[in-house]
Write a structure and sequence with these properties.
By secondary structure, the protein is of the alpha+beta class. The chain has one domain. It contains ten helices and five strands. A three-stranded antiparallel beta sheet has the order 1-2-3, with no helix packed on it. Strands 4-5 form a two-stranded antiparallel ribbon. The structure holds heme C (2 copies). The site of one heme C (HEC) has 20 residues, from strand 2, helix 1, helix 2 and helix 5.
């Protein structure tokens, strides 16, 4: 999988064969020693008319392989190629690719934009809020990469009180990336006792938003 796509390494049939997936069709083509899929999207103009974003705003990978896999210190791309309009993602409140960038927008905004720009209607489940709340760790990673990160500091620092040290670490990494510096041991001790941490967090929160 990680080899260069060369005539020697590619085993698939790229002679114009089509594959049906999720009700859609992809065609695999070869020109000389180069391999192509989705050729209609290979030009900047073609990509833009499909994605409604400039390439430097959102790439194919950003929308179709979002960063929803927790690595040790960061968030990796999913290996599963998905579509933002998949009901299994958007309708269930799983972290979806659009809102991981558009953190200040609601799921309803995403649903309506997908309907108006891509023409696909998704019905949101009425019980979304509790499910979305459970995924705040992924949102922490997204806030850490976003200019909106500072607005989320109060919510993120609340999670520095989580009982599980690994979960605390994820929020600590997000807070530190937003601040652009490490918190000193005096300010926050990841593995210190509960009492010490609570005192530290009271002080930290008192210093928001100018932490
Ligand atoms: C801003 C988000 C976004 C970006 C960037 C994006 N796509 Fe998509 N893509 C979508 C959405 C939304 C759908 C689902 C459309 C639907 O439900 O009909 C989709 C669907 C697709 C499909 C399924 C067939 C189709 O046309 O509906 C393919 C293939 C695809 N995208 C390839 C790409 C490639 C290749 C790129 C990079 C050039 C890309 N996409 C960039 C949002 C995006
Ligand atoms: C990698 C980050 C990224 C992803 C993923 C992404 N966008 Fe965007 N989007 C941007 C940026 C950057 C802009 C341009 C700046 C702005 O206006 O916010 C933008 C602009 C927009 C706009 C026009 C401005 C506005 O806020 O009304 C809409 C609508 C939009 N995106 C919808 C979507 C939808 C729907 C999806 C999912 C299919 C999506 N975006 C996925 C980064 C992203």
């Amino acid at each position: 999988m990680n080899q260069l796509a060369t005539v020697a390494s590619v085993l698939g049939d790229f002679s114009g064969v089509g594959v049906e997936y999720g009700g859609r069709r992809a065609v695999f083509l070869r020109q000389g020693d180069d391999f192509f899929g989705h050729q209609e999207l290979a030009t900047l103009a073609g990509a833009r008319s499909h994605s409604h974003h400039d390439a430097d705003q959102a790439s194919c990978l950003d929308c179709h392989m979002p960063r929803i896999v927790q690595g040790f210190t960061g968030y990796n791309r999913s290996h599963r190629i998905s579509s933002p309009s998949e009901p299994e993602i958007l309708a269930t409140g799983m972290p979806n690719t659009c809102n991981l960038c558009h953190l200040d927008r609601s799921l309803a905004w995403t649903r309506d934009t997908i309907a108006s720009r891509w023409g696909t209607r998704v019905t949101l489940s009425p019980s979304l809020m509790p499910e979305f709340g459970a995924n705040f760790e992924l949102a922490a990673g997204a806030y850490a990469r976003s200019p909106l990160g500072r607005t989320a500091l109060p919510a993120l620092t609340r999670h520095l009180e989580e009982p599980n040290a690994y979960v605390r670490l994820r929020f600590l990494l997000a807070v530190e990336r937003i601040l652009g510096r490490r918190l000193s041991d005096e300010e926050y001790t990841l593995m210190g006792g509960d009492e010490r941490r609570q005192t530290q967090l009271r002080l930290l929160r008192g210093r928001l938003p100018n932490l």
